[in-house]
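Final report, closing paragraph on structural work. Over the funding period we assembled a curated collection of sequence-structure pairs, and we close with a single example.
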Amino acid sequence: MKVYLAGPDVFLPNATEMGEAKKRLCARHGLEGVFPADPRPEEVEPGVPLWYAIYRRNEAHMRACDALVANLTPFRGPSADPGTVYELGFMRALGRPVLGYTNDAADFTTRTLGLVPAPAARNAAGRWLDGQGMALENHGLADNLMIEGGIRAANGLLVRRDVPEAERWSDLAAFEDCLQALAASLRRG
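Its predicted structure, as stored:
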């Protein structure tokens, strides 16, 4: 089974090494990992802007994969990387298994409140509001309800771990939990 390894790991200073480490873990569980930065033979298209070539490569990778494991650790804000969330939704729409993990176990609301520039307040119904008066999601979830809902609807798994900040981008224990669950589901048939 080929597994697309979605996440902002491609932006890490050691992205290549991280991709290789994840692929080794996949192999240990009888899976083939496909990292977004892996080359595709057909990706050379003259005159195509680089950003679009990257998009096309990643879409081709996803279409060639049987499942997705997404790194949903908050990236540049309180939520997961938007590109990763798109990829998770794309694979969900294809009907493929999707799993995710986050190395920040705090609730989405807690993380968001920590970034609100003006003091947060509650409305008459007791709902949290940000500095612009907009309601905040407060469901006790790791991220936006559509992310966790998509994983749940696909009978997937979302692993939440509380990893020290210095190790958030290098700790692969939650990633491996997802691989174990995916491999176990394959054995069950």
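The CA atoms of residues 97 and 155 lie 7 Å apart. The chain has two domains: 2-105+142-188, 107-141. We thank the funder for supporting this effort.
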